[in-house]
Amino acid sequence: MSENDAVSVQGSQDTEVPEVSPADQAIEPQSEAIQEPAEEKKVLSMEDLMDQLDDDAFIIDLPKAGEIRDGIIASISEGQILVSVGAKSEGIITGKEYEAIPQDFLNTMEVGKAIPVYVITPEDSSGNLILSFIRAVEEQSWVDAEALLKSGEAFDSKIVGYNKGGLIVMLSTIRGFIPASQLSFSRRLGITGDTPEAKYKDMIGEDITVCVIEVDRDRHRLILSERAASSETRDQIRDMVIESLEEGEIRKGRITSIADFGAFVNIGGADGLVHMSEITYDHITHPSQKLEVGKEVKVKVISVDRDRKRIGLSIRALKKDPWLDYVKDLTVGQLVEAEITRLTSFGAFAKLNVPGDLEGLIHISELSDRRVDHPKAIVKSGDQVTLRIIKIDEEEHRIGLSLRRVDSVAYADFDWKTLAADFDLLGDEEGEALADIVGEENVAEAEELAEAVEEKAETVEEAVEEAVEEAVEETVEETVEEPAEEAAEEVKEDEETPEA
User: Fold this and answer.
1) What does the pLDDT read at residue 35?
2) Does residue 402 register a pLDDT over 90?
3) According to the model, what pLDDT value does residue 60 have?
4) Rounded to whole angstroms, what are the CA distances from 471 to 166, 234, 465, 481?
5) Number of domains in the chain
6) Weakest-pLDDT range from 101-110, 165-174, 251-260, 447-456
7) Is residue 361, in this structure, part of any structural domain at all?
8) Domain assignment present for 448
9) Poorest-confidence range of 26-35, 110-119, 231-240?
10) Which residue, among 139, 127, 122, 129, has the nearest Cα to 68 in the 3D structure?
11) Fewer Cβ within 10 Å of end Cβ, the chain: N or C?
């Protein structure tokens, strides 16, 4: 035993211990039990509490501008919503932020309901915490949009509007834009009309499934695609387009490639061919002279081969045919001046000296009244000749010409009437007066000339008629005289023959 222990024991022995009654002995343990919690409580309040004050759990989390918090609606009044955001803080949604809440959202709000809120100002001049419900939802929408962009998942929505470039679709509170090029092929097939209203108005309210393809918060830009969310294949789309096409339809398309023989144009998901002859009425040697890849063009469907899956298109069919304007003043039988441009084994081509780039064919049989083995025997390139128009084919854009019929008697009457009409000799009010052309003093001479022409035409006509009559009479006389002479000779022979 140590000295201290010895002292302690000795002190205990010297101390007088009072006597304790049995009743006091029974109460004493309970008193000790009651005193113990008091000692523990004293320890928590004095020692442990000081340590726990440094813990993060006891740091007050005050709202900060720009953050989104979960709040509980504490009260709703006219033009104001009181929201509890924790830390014994309550903020208000009022003014423009209250007015921005759509009525259908506002109708669902009630005391005790949890809503997200955006902290605009932790403390305004009046000491209020200013909150916004719409900004919180919008911010969350951007977060959702970025998540959808990253995952590539599609979401369902409704078409709420349109503009000249495409459709407007909502992602929560954000307006997303679907360019026309990002619409599904099947939807594009149903688009008709030239104005945005005609194209898209009937689609408002329709359900649509889209993917997010671009998100730009700074520019408030959200681009969506229905095509990316569609399971349609290119072959399916092409077949759908071909089945829906009808000859004569007018479609918009984009040039995808150019070849020596024409250009391919994509119309709604299927490529059609615009042959070089269907690009323009002008003379070109290659499609690239008029077209370029990527250019949007209007085309007319001129043929659909569903078995071979081929589409024939035309660009020039949508334009006015200048050839028809050039030939509108030309008539069959008319005399025209022309230049021989080239020779072939079957005839010669001549460029007419009239407005427009018109060329006609002189068939080898129309070069001369006699037999011609090759056109070079009659004409050569560069010759200036007078020709007669004998055919105008507006469908095939062909003009038939003749050299041998220029002086044909068969056209004498036509030539006279043409001359008379030109000089207003027939009294046509719409024709040009002769006096205006040659002057008053030369009218008599012109009329005499016209009469001479008319007399000459009549003389030629009479000569033709007389020649025909003479030929007929000679034929009749020969037909009658020969049998008569033969009959007379037979009678004479019978008379000279003695009777048996």
Assistant:
1) 47
2) yes
3) 63
4) 83, 78, 10, 15
5) 4
6) 447-456
7) yes
8) no
9) 26-35
10) 139
11) C
For the chain, give the secondary structure using H, E and C: CCHHHHHHHHHHHHCCCCCCCHHHHHHHHHHHHHHHHHHHHHHHHHHHHHHHCCCHHHCCCCCCCCCEEEEEEEEEECCEEEEEEECCEEEEEECHHHHCCCHHHHHHCCCCCEEEEEEEECCCCCCCEEEEHHHHHHHHHHHHHHHHHHHCCEEEEEEEEEECCEEEEEECCEEEEEEHHHCCHHHHHCCCCCCHHHHHHHHCCCEEEEEEEEEECCCCEEEEECCCCCCCCHHHHHHHHHHHCCCCCEEEEEEEEEECCEEEEEECCEEEEEEHHHCCCCCCCCHHHCCCCCCEEEEEEEEEECCCCEEEEECHHHCCCHHHHHHCCCCCCCEEEEEEEEEECCEEEEEECCCCCCEEEEEHHHCCCCCCCCHHHCCCCCCEEEEEEEEEECCCCEEEEECCCCCCHHHHHHHHHHHHHHCCCCCCCCCCCHHHHHCHHHHHHHHHHHHHHHHHHHHHHHHHHHHHHHHHHHHHHHHHHHHHHHHHHHHHHHHHCCCC
220 and 157 in a common domain? yes
Which of 388, 407, 426 corresponds to the end of one domain? 407
| Boundaries of domain holding 285 | 240-317
Least Cα distance to 375 among 343, 411, 406, 409 occurs for: 343
The CA distance from 436 to 470, in Å, is 46
- Residue 297: what pLDDT? 92
Place of tokens 């854009």: 397
CB 127 within 8 A of CB 140: no
What Å distances lie between residue 469 and 249, 459, 460, CA to CA?
61, 15, 14
- Phi and psi at residue 3, to the nearest 5°: -65, -40
> CA angle at residue 428 from 423 to 429, to 5 degrees?
110
Residue indicated by tokens 């499934």: 209
Q: For 420-462, how does the pLDDT look when each residue is reduced to its tens digit (9 = 90+)?
A: 666 655 554 444 444 555 455 555 555 565 566 566 556 655 6
Same domain for 181 and 125: no
Nearest Cα neighbor of 360 from 376, 378, 341 is 341
Q: What is the CATH number of the domain that holds 307?
A: 2.40.50.140
Tell me how far apart the alpha carbons of residues 139 and 171 are, in angstroms, rounded to a whole number: 12
> Phi and psi dihedrals of 302, rounded to 5?
-110, -15
